[in-house]
Specification:
There is one protein chain. The chain is of the alpha/beta class. The protein is built from 10 helices and 7 strands.
Length: 260
């Protein structure tokens, strides 16, 4: 086992999509990595790749972060292993397509636990040691879904509004502390997201989408530069800004059509 090193980065949802790319970029910058998700084989394969490509240490922590108490248990493992986390990337998340009245409550509850509760808990747990060291980076992955309500994916959009609101407030609270909390808002991006959200057949998922790599690079650049929020892509930035100017009824009709 590699020797313990300081200044680890922890990436949730590192078994596919944008999370894999966060891990690859951080490893290329020399960060030892804690990789978290449910699919152990994917995490172990990635860990091997990064150890041999960059000579970094890795820890694989398998966790279903949608389970009640999972974030607390994960943090206990991090603490017991003596890993000091310098960068926390709260990336794990999923969506669920369909009308709320027909949704499966268990799945919705898991989404709330993962997208909101686990992200908030890990942020809370990592802060004391970052504040004591006057240094640290937190990147919370929201979405362009954060900027408007989403009829057809009502709960997912609302979870991402939470992530944006929470993280922007935190960014402000942390001013002058040496700790940065940044929100990344990707638009539709190549990954397993659409399949996981039962949207694989939809036109949005079939368009030529930006790569996970591009989105992860933007997020990490913004985080290390101390930015509050970053939205990927010019069209997404225009849409996000226009949501503030267009009447809410019109925003709802357009979003509903896009998600149908
Ligand atoms: N792709 C897009 O179009 C898009 C747009 C805006 C925002 N986002 C956001 O970007 C983030 C990353 O998503 P992605 O696009 O890379 O999708 P993805 O390829 O489906 O990746 C999702 C990651 O989250 C992990 N995850 C899901 N459920 C989990 C659970 N219960 N416990 C622990 N980990 C769990 C998955 O790992 P396991 O399945 O192995 O657990 C996987 O590593 C998400 O927060 C998503 O909402 C994506």
């Amino acid at each position: 086992m590699p020797p313990l090193q300081k200044s680890w980065a922890l990436v949730t949802g590192a078994s596919s999509g944008i999370g894999v790319e966060f891990a690859r970029i951080l490893a290329s910058q020399g960060y030892p990595l804690v990789l978290v998700a449910r699919r152990e084989e994917n995490l172990r394969t990635l860990a091997k790749e990064l150890e041999s490509a960059h000579g970094i240490a890795t820890r694989v922590l398998v966790s279903d972060l949608s389970a009640i108490g999972a974030a607390e248990a994960l943090w206990e493992q991090v603490r017991e292993a003596g890993l000091e986390i310098d960068a926390l990337i709260n990336n794990a998340g999923f969506g669920d397509h369909g009308h709320f009245s027909q949704s499966d409550w268990e799945r919705t509850h898991q989404m709330l636990q993962l997208n909101i509760v686990a992200l908030t808990a890990l942020t809370r747990f990592v802060l004391p040691s970052m504040l004591a060291r006057k240094q640290g980076y937190i990147l919370n992955v929201a979405s362009t879904a954060a900027f408007q309500p989403g009829p057809g994916m009502a709960v997912y959009f609302a979870t991402k509004s939470y992530v944006l609101s929470f993280t922007e407030a935190l960014w402000s609270e942390l001013q002058g502390s040496g700790v940065i909390a940044t929100t990344l808002c990707p638009g539709p991006t190549q990954s397993e997201f659409f399949a996981a959200a039962n949207m694989g057949g939809r036109s949005m998922a079939k368009r030529k989408l930006p790569s996970s790599r591009e989105v992860a690079e933007l997020g990490l650049r913004a985080m290390f530069a101390g930015k509050r929020t970053v939205v990927h892509g010019l069209a997404n930035r225009i849409l996000a800004a226009s949501n503030r100017l267009v009447p809410r009824g019109a925003v709802l009709s357009v979003t509903r059509k896009m998600l149908e």
